């Protein structure tokens, strides 16, 4: 019972193997044909470029021999071929012309084939005196009016292409002018690692190639007839002509192939793409190695077979896994139910956490708001404390001008009674000046005492400095302190609040006055300059400075280096926070020459912004 089943299975396997083998052969056949077509297209493109470079190089010189043959120096040479001066002039002209055109050589041959003048007349292997009547470029030009020929030079042993044109003088053909061009540059432009580019002559001998090992070699057998035709024109001079072991054939797709032994630099098989150049009687050929195309075809078949095997293996895997699908689905459903339960539980926990976090955020915001209010009140308290310290001296500032004004007023009455009006007017002007002075001091005190507007705007730095000077003028005078101010040549404007900036300057100047009050050098230096987008304000004193261990705490609230009862320790802390609100920075250091130096950096307001604000 089992034997027929085994036979059927064996037959089925053999049939399947046969089908697979047939499909593989067809796939390989089609894939190789496609790869060869792509290789052929690549060869056609390369062939077009190679042919274009050849045609371009030849076209540069094609009409030049006719033009040069009609020049006076050349015609004079053929009329007087034995005149040394004429010969020298022709030689010099040909040399200059060759250099100008970029030609290898330019020379003139008499009608018997003897060279009369040449561009290389002063070289060791000069053409002058040589007879090249056997060259086709000479006798074709003499007979037909145009000569073209490729050859290896018999004198120079250098390859070149020759253009010949007849020289007619007084209605007679007296000679030929020849231009020889070098073909080495063309070969250098064909450099390639895999393919070969070559040009063959009418005898199928290679004379141009990007691989020098095939130069002067022929495809096919070198028969005596082929060698005789080549020797007749001495195309290759004394060079040895060899044979190439590669043999040509055409495959079933019509592609021309060259097969041979191959080597480290040569492939064992090439696909040939050729095209003729009738005007030069040449054939340009491109040889492309076929190994990559064959490997690509084989690889494509192998990939196809591998994909078929993979598909079969996947089918087996699917069949095996379908048995486990039901169990896996049940396990996944159980895991899904458990996950949903955990997600729901975690969602409630996150909701509770969010509520607690929102409460904490609201509490912190309230705390921050209260902190800002407290800070503002501390700023105001610091200003009022400073006003209290200045009150005694300010009363003196007001009483002195008031007493003087009274005296001037009484004198003015007496002067008016005596009809001395000009002197009375002078006293009244002095009284008005004193009143203006008290008004300015009163306005600065009022502005300094009120709560500032928190909105930032453009502040002229000079106005803030003048206001601070007027508020602290009594202290400067009382302590004998000199304040030197240098705000530069151009007016500086900063971004901030005028009242709060005035408060910062008052605090810094007050501390500086305290620092130098008991010292020998009672000078203060207030300087300002603009550096990029910042205005830097420095205030230096000549006091004892701040100890290194205390500099880190100098801006802390309620920290003071003064004696007990002489300060709350809020001035620098308040100033630091005000400057930070302005978007600036306040720092301190001890000056190298002694004393403390405070650096106040504020955002500069540009001139267009200042004009717009005004």
Structure notes:
It is a single chain. This protein is α+β, with helices and mostly antiparallel strands and 614 residues long. 53% of the residues lie in helices and 20% in strands. The protein contains 14 helices and 20 strands. The strands form five sheets. A six-stranded antiparallel beta sheet has the order 7-6-13-12-11-10. Strands 2-1-5-4-3 form a five-stranded antiparallel beta sheet. The protein has a five-stranded mixed beta sheet with strand order 15-17-18-20-19. Strand 10 and strand 11 (256-259) form a beta hairpin. Helix 8 crosses helix 9.
Task: Give me the secondary-structure topology.
Blueprint: H1 2-61, H2 64-69, H3 72-79, H4 84-101, E1 105-110, E2 115-118, H5 136-144, E3 147-152, E4 159-169, E5 172-181, H6 184-189, E6 196-200, E7 206-209, E8 217-219, H7 224-233, E9 242-244, E10 247-250, E11 256-259, E12 269-277, E13 282-289, H8 291-417, H9 421-449, E14 457-460, H10 461-471, H11 473-479, E15 482-486, E16 493-496, H12 498-516, E17 523-531, E18 534-541, H13 571-581, E19 585-590, E20 596-603, H14 607-613
Parallel strand pairs: 8-9, 15-17
Antiparallel strand pairs: 1-2, 1-5, 3-4, 4-5, 6-7, 6-13, 10-11, 11-12, 12-13, 14-16, 17-18, 18-20, 19-20
Q: DSSP helix count?
A: 14
Stretches with pLDDT under 50, minimum 5 residues: 609-614
Count the strands?
20
Strand order of the largest sheet: 7-6-13-12-11-10
| Mean pLDDT across every amino acid position | 80
Q: Structural class of the helices, strands and pairings?
A: alpha+beta
Shape: elongated
N→C terminal distance = 113 Å
**Residues in helix, %:** 40-55%
Radius of gyration based on Cα positions: 54 Å
Biggest beta-sheet profile = 6 strands, antiparallel
User: Strand fraction band?
Assistant: 15-25%
């Amino acid at each position: 019972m089992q034997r027929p089943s085994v036979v059927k299975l064996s037959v089925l396997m053999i049939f399947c193997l046969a089908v697979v083998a047939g499909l593989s052969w067809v796939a390989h056949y089609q894939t190789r044909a496609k790869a060869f077509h792509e290789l052929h297209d690549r060869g056609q493109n390369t062939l077009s470029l190679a042919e274009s470079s050849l045609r371009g190089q030849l076209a540069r010189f094609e009409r030049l021999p006719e033009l040069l043959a009609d020049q006076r120096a050349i015609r004079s040479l053929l009329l007087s071929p034995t005149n040394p001066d004429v010969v020298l002039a022709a030689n010099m002209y040909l040399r200059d012309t060759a250099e100008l055109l970029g030609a290898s050589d330019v020379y003139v041959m008499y009608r018997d084939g003897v060279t009369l003048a040449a561009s290389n007349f002063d070289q060791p292997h000069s053409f002058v005196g040589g007879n090249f009547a056997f060259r086709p470029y000479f006798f074709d030009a003499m007979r037909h009016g145009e000569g073209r020929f490729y050859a290896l030079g018999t004198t120079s042993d250098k390859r070149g292409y020759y253009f010949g044109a007849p020289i007619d003088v007084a209605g007679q053909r007296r000679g030929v002018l020849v231009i020889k061009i070098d073909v080495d540059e063309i070969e250098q432009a064909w450099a390639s690692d895999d393919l070969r580019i070559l040009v063959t002559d009418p005898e199928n001998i290679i004379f141009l190639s990007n691989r020098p090992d095939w130069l002067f070699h022929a495809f096919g057998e070198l028969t005596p007839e082929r060698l005789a035709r080549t020797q007749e024109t001495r195309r290759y001079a004394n060079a040895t002509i060899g044979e190439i072991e590669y043999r040509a054939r055409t495959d079933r797709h019509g592609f021309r192939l060259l097969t041979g032994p191959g080597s480290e630099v040569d492939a064992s098989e090439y696909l040939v793409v050729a095209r003729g150049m009738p005007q030069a009687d040449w054939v340009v050929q491109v040889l492309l190695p076929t190994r990559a195309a064959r490997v690509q075809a084989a690889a494509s078949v192998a990939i196809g077979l591998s994909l078929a095997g993979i598909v079969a293996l996947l089918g087996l895997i699917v069949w095996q896994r379908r048995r486990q699908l039901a169990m896996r689905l049940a396990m996944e459903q159980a895991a899904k139910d458990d996950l949903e339960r955990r997600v729901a539980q975690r969602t409630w926990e996150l909701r509770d956490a969010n509520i607690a976090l929102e409460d904490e955020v609201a509490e912190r915001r309230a705390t921050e708001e209260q902190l800002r209010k407290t800070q503002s009140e501390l700023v105001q308290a610091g200003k009022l404390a400073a006003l209290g310290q200045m009150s005694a001296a300010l009363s003196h500032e007001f009483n002195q001008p008031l007493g003087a004004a009274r005296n001037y007023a009484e004198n003015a009455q007496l002067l008016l009674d005596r009809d001395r009006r000009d002197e009375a007017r002078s006293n009244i002007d002095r009284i008005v000046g004193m009143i203006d002075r008290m008004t300015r001091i009163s306005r600065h005190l009022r502005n300094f005492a009120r709560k500032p507007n928190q909105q930032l705007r453009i502040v002229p730095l000079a106005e803030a400095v003048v206001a601070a000077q007027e508020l602290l003028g009594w202290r400067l005078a009382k302590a004998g302190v000199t304040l030197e101010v240098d705000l530069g040549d151009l007016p500086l404007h900063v971004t901030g609040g005028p009242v709060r900036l005035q408060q910062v300057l008052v605090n810094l100047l007050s501390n500086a006055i305290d620092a130098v009050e008991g010292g020998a050098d009672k000078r203060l230096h207030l300087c300002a300059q603009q550096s990029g987008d910042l205005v830097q304000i420095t205030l230096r004193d000549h006091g004892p400075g701040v100890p290194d261990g205390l500099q880190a705490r100098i801006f802390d609230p309620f920290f003071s280096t003064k004696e007990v009862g002489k300060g709350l320790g809020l001035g620098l802390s308040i100033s630091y926070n005000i400057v930070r609100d302005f978007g600036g920075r306040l720092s301190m250091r001890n000056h190298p020459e002694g004393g403390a130096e405070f650096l106040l950096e504020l955002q500069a307001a540009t001139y267009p912004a200042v004009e717009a604000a005004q």
